[in-house]
Putative oxidoreductase yciK
Amino acid sequence: MHYQPQDNLLKNRIILVTGASDGIGRVAALTYARFGASVILLGRNEQKLRAVAGEIQSHGLLPAHWFTLDLATATSAECHALANKLATLVPRLDGVLHNAGILGDVVPMDKQDPDTWQAVMQVNVNATFFLTQALLPLLLKSESGSLVFTTSSVGRQGRAGWGAYAASKFATEGMMQVLAEEYKPHNLRVNCINPGGTRTAMRASAFPTEDPAKLKTPRDLMPLYLWLMGDDSRRKTGMSFDAQPNQAQQERGILIVFTGNGKGKTTAAFGTATRAVGHGKKVGVIQFIKGQWPNGERNLLEPLGVEFQVMATGFTWETQNRETDTAACLAVWEHGKRMLADATLDMVILDELTYMVAYDYLPLDAVLNALTNRPANQTVIITGRGCHREILDAADTVSELRPVKHAFDAGVKAQIGIDY
């Protein structure tokens, strides 16, 4: 994942990590602490937990708390007792990373040992559920809580020999999806992360002949682990992320934002729209704050079946009649909502939408809800300066245009075919 977090990404956040004594859990705990979090370590080996806490302290970071809990035998009562202890220690939890897990036997179903099957389900499913249930009250006290489960590719597509482990990860994915739906109205997002093949002891036990030097290290995966715990992912919930995607295989609509103070935002949007129309795609356009003069993009695309809805009020920020302009904006937005709900539209352009949000002509929540609930295969392009942070967070692709030179500054007026 190409993500460059700010050094203080997790400042003032309290994050609990299970399986924190080894492997990915240990590296995640150290990384969270390095980016400002107060970390709570959970594992079954007291000596190793002490060592991780000592390593955190040796770097001059916030002291880590640690607790031993053996998920192989943990009961609901024990998990609630731990949560009660935590409640006397910290005011809330801002994040929980469920990293602990066991593999079981990699053998065909008819050779799966029932006791091993039960052991895998206990650690990977039952105890994970018990602990989640116990920690939910602390998570819900956070203004931006993040609950992250660890999954696997075999938890999405079954693979021969991976019986108990695969079944447990299918259950994990289901648990994540249910929790995400239940807590959508709250400040808690719930997601899964699939670390993929990583240089860990569990991986070595599953593939003893594999060359570990060819595998990613836990540290290589940390950008995604950080992103899911920080506020940059705060509008993502109910999703399963791959820390090591082999290649881009997913087909779905995306949200693109062209913002910044440079020239070319609308031009980029309509260049993309022209490409889509050229491939037989169906496109709809909403234009805010465009005046009543004709523009080239509309002259070209409207005869090709592209619907345009234009505010067309000659709108300026020094308007003498805000009520009239607000009404005009809301009227055009009704068409925007219609387009965003139309599964037959492959692409919707919301040209200059950012200004409507920035100047309170449109409520942010209404825009985000329409974007979130649009058809899965619909791509949306938003243009305009000063795009709201929450829209940027929701976007898949963001390009910021920066001015270097502009002809207008040299006294050249706007020209037909170039500027409109």
